[in-house]
Design a protein that fits this description.
Elements: H1 7-33, H2 37-44, H3 49-57, E1 67-71, H4 77-85, E2 90-95, H5 98-110, E3 116-119, E4 132-138, H6 146-156, E5 157-168, H7 174-194, H8 199-202, H9 205-213, H10 218-227, E6 231-238, E7 243-249
Parallel strand pairs: 1-2, 1-4, 2-3, 4-5
Antiparallel strand pairs: 5-7, 6-7
Length: 253
Amino acid sequence: MSPPPPLALREELREKRFSTIWKRDLHDIFVDVAPYYDRANFVASLGLWNWFRSSFMATIPVAPDLRVLDVCAGTNAVGIALLKREPNLKVHAIDRSEAMQTVGRQRAEALGLHIDSTICDVHTIPFPDNYFDRVTLQYATRHLRVEEIFKEIRRVLKPGGSFHHCDMLRPGSPTVEKLYYGYLRSCLAITGLLFRSGTAAMNAKKYFIDALEMFYSADELSEVLRRQGFCDVSAKTLLAGMIGFHRAVKPQP
Protein backbone atom coordinates (compact mmCIF):
# COMPACT_ATOMS: atom_id res chain seq x y z
CA MET A 1 0.00 0.00 0.00
CA SER A 2 1.61 3.24 -1.16
CA PRO A 3 0.68 6.80 -0.13
CA PRO A 4 -1.67 8.63 -2.49
CA PRO A 5 -0.23 11.19 -4.91
CA PRO A 6 -0.22 14.88 -3.93
CA LEU A 7 -3.60 16.57 -4.04
CA ALA A 8 -2.57 18.89 -6.88
CA LEU A 9 -1.77 15.90 -9.12
CA ARG A 10 -4.46 13.50 -7.95
CA GLU A 11 -7.02 14.02 -10.70
CA GLU A 12 -4.47 13.90 -13.50
CA LEU A 13 -3.00 10.65 -12.21
CA ARG A 14 -6.40 9.07 -11.47
CA GLU A 15 -7.53 9.69 -15.02
CA LYS A 16 -4.25 8.43 -16.47
CA ARG A 17 -4.51 5.20 -14.47
CA PHE A 18 -8.24 4.47 -14.71
CA SER A 19 -9.60 6.19 -17.85
CA THR A 20 -9.60 2.98 -19.88
CA ILE A 21 -11.61 1.16 -17.20
CA TRP A 22 -14.01 4.10 -16.83
CA LYS A 23 -14.66 4.27 -20.58
CA ARG A 24 -14.54 0.57 -21.48
CA ASP A 25 -15.38 -1.62 -18.49
CA LEU A 26 -17.76 0.17 -16.12
CA HIS A 27 -20.75 -0.24 -18.41
CA ASP A 28 -20.43 -4.03 -18.41
CA ILE A 29 -19.75 -4.11 -14.66
CA PHE A 30 -22.99 -2.31 -13.85
CA VAL A 31 -25.01 -4.34 -16.35
CA ASP A 32 -23.74 -7.36 -14.41
CA VAL A 33 -24.43 -6.08 -10.89
CA ALA A 34 -27.68 -4.12 -11.47
CA PRO A 35 -30.10 -6.95 -10.55
CA TYR A 36 -28.43 -7.61 -7.18
CA TYR A 37 -26.63 -4.33 -6.45
CA ASP A 38 -28.59 -3.35 -3.34
CA ARG A 39 -28.61 -6.87 -1.87
CA ALA A 40 -24.87 -7.27 -2.43
CA ASN A 41 -24.13 -3.96 -0.70
CA PHE A 42 -26.28 -5.00 2.27
CA VAL A 43 -24.29 -8.23 2.62
CA ALA A 44 -20.88 -6.60 2.03
CA SER A 45 -21.63 -3.95 4.69
CA LEU A 46 -22.58 -6.63 7.24
CA GLY A 47 -26.11 -5.28 7.36
CA LEU A 48 -25.10 -1.64 7.87
CA TRP A 49 -26.18 -0.46 4.41
CA ASN A 50 -29.56 0.91 5.53
CA TRP A 51 -27.88 2.76 8.41
CA PHE A 52 -25.41 4.35 5.98
CA ARG A 53 -28.31 5.45 3.78
CA SER A 54 -30.50 6.82 6.57
CA SER A 55 -27.52 8.71 8.04
CA PHE A 56 -26.86 10.32 4.67
CA MET A 57 -30.54 11.13 4.08
CA ALA A 58 -30.66 12.92 7.43
CA THR A 59 -28.14 15.47 6.10
CA ILE A 60 -30.41 16.55 3.19
CA PRO A 61 -33.12 19.15 3.98
CA VAL A 62 -36.23 18.95 1.80
CA ALA A 63 -39.41 20.95 1.29
CA PRO A 64 -42.37 20.74 -1.13
CA ASP A 65 -41.68 21.56 -4.80
CA LEU A 66 -37.90 21.65 -4.52
CA ARG A 67 -36.06 20.43 -7.61
CA VAL A 68 -33.62 17.64 -6.80
CA LEU A 69 -31.05 16.11 -9.14
CA ASP A 70 -29.66 12.70 -8.20
CA VAL A 71 -26.40 12.20 -10.11
CA CYS A 72 -25.30 8.61 -10.78
CA ALA A 73 -28.68 7.63 -9.39
CA GLY A 74 -28.22 3.90 -9.95
CA THR A 75 -31.19 2.04 -8.48
CA ASN A 76 -32.81 5.32 -7.29
CA ALA A 77 -32.17 4.65 -3.60
CA VAL A 78 -31.67 8.35 -2.86
CA GLY A 79 -34.63 9.59 -4.90
CA ILE A 80 -36.97 7.02 -3.37
CA ALA A 81 -35.84 7.83 0.17
CA LEU A 82 -36.33 11.56 -0.41
CA LEU A 83 -39.78 11.12 -1.96
CA LYS A 84 -40.86 9.01 1.00
CA ARG A 85 -40.00 11.99 3.20
CA GLU A 86 -41.51 14.63 0.90
CA PRO A 87 -43.79 13.34 -1.89
CA ASN A 88 -44.00 16.76 -3.56
CA LEU A 89 -40.35 16.94 -4.53
CA LYS A 90 -39.49 17.07 -8.23
CA VAL A 91 -36.77 14.44 -8.52
CA HIS A 92 -34.69 13.85 -11.63
CA ALA A 93 -32.16 11.03 -11.92
CA ILE A 94 -29.21 10.88 -14.29
CA ASP A 95 -26.94 7.89 -14.79
CA ARG A 96 -24.86 6.43 -17.61
CA SER A 97 -26.10 2.90 -16.84
CA GLU A 98 -29.45 2.08 -18.40
CA ALA A 99 -29.39 -1.28 -16.62
CA MET A 100 -29.14 0.36 -13.19
CA GLN A 101 -31.82 2.92 -14.02
CA THR A 102 -34.15 0.20 -15.29
CA VAL A 103 -33.98 -1.39 -11.84
CA GLY A 104 -34.39 2.06 -10.28
CA ARG A 105 -37.52 2.88 -12.31
CA GLN A 106 -39.05 -0.48 -11.41
CA ARG A 107 -38.37 0.13 -7.72
CA ALA A 108 -39.90 3.62 -7.80
CA GLU A 109 -42.96 2.54 -9.79
CA ALA A 110 -43.60 -0.37 -7.40
CA LEU A 111 -43.92 2.23 -4.63
CA GLY A 112 -46.10 4.57 -6.67
CA LEU A 113 -43.32 7.17 -6.92
CA HIS A 114 -42.28 9.16 -9.98
CA ILE A 115 -38.65 9.94 -10.79
CA ASP A 116 -37.71 11.44 -14.16
CA SER A 117 -34.69 9.76 -15.70
CA THR A 118 -31.98 10.65 -18.20
CA ILE A 119 -29.29 8.26 -19.43
CA CYS A 120 -26.15 10.22 -20.18
CA ASP A 121 -22.50 10.85 -19.35
CA VAL A 122 -22.86 12.67 -16.04
CA HIS A 123 -19.76 14.79 -16.67
CA THR A 124 -22.01 16.91 -18.93
CA ILE A 125 -25.29 17.47 -17.08
CA PRO A 126 -28.10 18.24 -19.58
CA PHE A 127 -29.77 20.98 -17.56
CA PRO A 128 -29.45 24.77 -17.54
CA ASP A 129 -27.50 26.86 -15.07
CA ASN A 130 -29.04 27.59 -11.67
CA TYR A 131 -31.80 24.98 -12.05
CA PHE A 132 -31.78 22.68 -9.00
CA ASP A 133 -32.28 23.36 -5.30
CA ARG A 134 -30.48 20.17 -4.24
CA VAL A 135 -28.02 17.86 -5.98
CA THR A 136 -27.04 14.48 -4.58
CA LEU A 137 -24.27 12.05 -5.55
CA GLN A 138 -23.85 8.73 -3.77
CA TYR A 139 -21.26 5.94 -4.09
CA ALA A 140 -20.01 6.85 -7.55
CA THR A 141 -17.40 9.60 -7.36
CA ARG A 142 -14.52 7.09 -7.22
CA HIS A 143 -15.42 6.25 -10.83
CA LEU A 144 -15.61 9.85 -12.05
CA ARG A 145 -13.41 12.80 -12.96
CA VAL A 146 -14.06 14.52 -9.65
CA GLU A 147 -13.20 18.12 -10.42
CA GLU A 148 -15.14 18.02 -13.68
CA ILE A 149 -18.33 16.61 -12.17
CA PHE A 150 -18.18 18.95 -9.16
CA LYS A 151 -17.87 21.90 -11.54
CA GLU A 152 -20.98 20.74 -13.44
CA ILE A 153 -22.92 20.22 -10.23
CA ARG A 154 -22.07 23.73 -9.07
CA ARG A 155 -23.23 25.08 -12.44
CA VAL A 156 -26.72 23.52 -12.28
CA LEU A 157 -27.30 24.40 -8.63
CA LYS A 158 -29.23 27.56 -7.79
CA PRO A 159 -27.33 30.12 -5.73
CA GLY A 160 -27.84 29.05 -2.14
CA GLY A 161 -28.62 25.50 -3.25
CA SER A 162 -26.79 22.60 -1.63
CA PHE A 163 -24.83 19.62 -2.89
CA HIS A 164 -24.90 16.45 -0.80
CA HIS A 165 -22.23 13.82 -1.41
CA CYS A 166 -21.72 10.33 0.00
CA ASP A 167 -19.03 7.80 -0.86
CA MET A 168 -16.52 5.34 0.41
CA LEU A 169 -13.36 7.32 1.18
CA ARG A 170 -9.70 6.68 1.80
CA PRO A 171 -9.34 6.61 5.61
CA GLY A 172 -6.91 9.06 7.15
CA SER A 173 -5.24 6.38 9.27
CA PRO A 174 -2.79 4.02 7.47
CA THR A 175 -3.68 1.26 9.95
CA VAL A 176 -7.41 1.60 9.31
CA GLU A 177 -6.71 1.83 5.59
CA LYS A 178 -4.80 -1.46 5.58
CA LEU A 179 -7.55 -3.27 7.51
CA TYR A 180 -10.22 -1.69 5.31
CA TYR A 181 -8.68 -2.87 2.06
CA GLY A 182 -8.06 -6.32 3.47
CA TYR A 183 -11.73 -6.64 4.38
CA LEU A 184 -12.86 -5.32 1.00
CA ARG A 185 -10.72 -7.84 -0.87
CA SER A 186 -12.33 -10.66 1.08
CA CYS A 187 -15.92 -9.41 0.85
CA LEU A 188 -15.68 -8.64 -2.88
CA ALA A 189 -14.64 -12.23 -3.49
CA ILE A 190 -17.35 -13.64 -1.22
CA THR A 191 -20.20 -11.49 -2.59
CA GLY A 192 -19.06 -12.23 -6.13
CA LEU A 193 -19.44 -15.94 -5.48
CA LEU A 194 -22.63 -15.55 -3.46
CA PHE A 195 -24.42 -13.54 -6.14
CA ARG A 196 -22.77 -15.39 -9.04
CA SER A 197 -21.20 -12.28 -10.50
CA GLY A 198 -20.23 -12.41 -14.14
CA THR A 199 -16.78 -11.99 -15.61
CA ALA A 200 -16.93 -8.18 -15.78
CA ALA A 201 -17.63 -7.76 -12.07
CA MET A 202 -15.24 -10.49 -10.94
CA ASN A 203 -12.41 -8.97 -12.98
CA ALA A 204 -13.00 -5.56 -11.39
CA LYS A 205 -12.08 -6.56 -7.82
CA LYS A 206 -8.55 -5.16 -8.05
CA TYR A 207 -9.79 -1.97 -9.68
CA PHE A 208 -12.19 -1.23 -6.80
CA ILE A 209 -9.33 -1.36 -4.28
CA ASP A 210 -6.93 0.58 -6.51
CA ALA A 211 -9.55 3.30 -7.03
CA LEU A 212 -9.93 3.74 -3.27
CA GLU A 213 -6.17 3.90 -2.73
CA MET A 214 -5.98 6.85 -5.16
CA PHE A 215 -9.18 8.52 -3.93
CA TYR A 216 -9.62 11.24 -1.31
CA SER A 217 -9.87 11.37 2.44
CA ALA A 218 -12.72 13.40 3.94
CA ASP A 219 -10.50 16.45 4.47
CA GLU A 220 -9.07 16.24 0.95
CA LEU A 221 -12.51 16.01 -0.64
CA SER A 222 -13.59 19.07 1.36
CA GLU A 223 -10.63 20.93 -0.12
CA VAL A 224 -11.57 19.84 -3.66
CA LEU A 225 -15.09 21.19 -3.12
CA ARG A 226 -13.74 24.52 -1.91
CA ARG A 227 -11.44 24.73 -4.93
CA GLN A 228 -14.48 24.29 -7.18
CA GLY A 229 -16.10 27.36 -5.65
CA PHE A 230 -18.41 25.83 -3.05
CA CYS A 231 -18.80 27.44 0.37
CA ASP A 232 -19.98 26.25 3.80
CA VAL A 233 -18.37 22.87 3.16
CA SER A 234 -18.87 20.35 5.96
CA ALA A 235 -18.06 16.67 6.33
CA LYS A 236 -19.16 13.80 8.54
CA THR A 237 -17.50 10.39 8.58
CA LEU A 238 -18.50 6.93 9.74
CA LEU A 239 -16.36 3.91 10.62
CA ALA A 240 -13.08 5.78 11.14
CA GLY A 241 -13.34 7.63 7.84
CA MET A 242 -14.32 4.71 5.60
CA ILE A 243 -17.64 6.37 4.68
CA GLY A 244 -18.04 10.11 4.34
CA PHE A 245 -20.89 12.60 3.83
CA HIS A 246 -20.19 16.09 2.50
CA ARG A 247 -22.46 19.11 2.24
CA ALA A 248 -21.49 22.14 0.17
CA VAL A 249 -23.38 25.26 -0.90
CA LYS A 250 -23.27 27.31 -4.09
CA PRO A 251 -22.54 30.88 -3.01
CA GLN A 252 -25.03 33.67 -3.52
CA PRO A 253 -23.91 36.26 -6.13
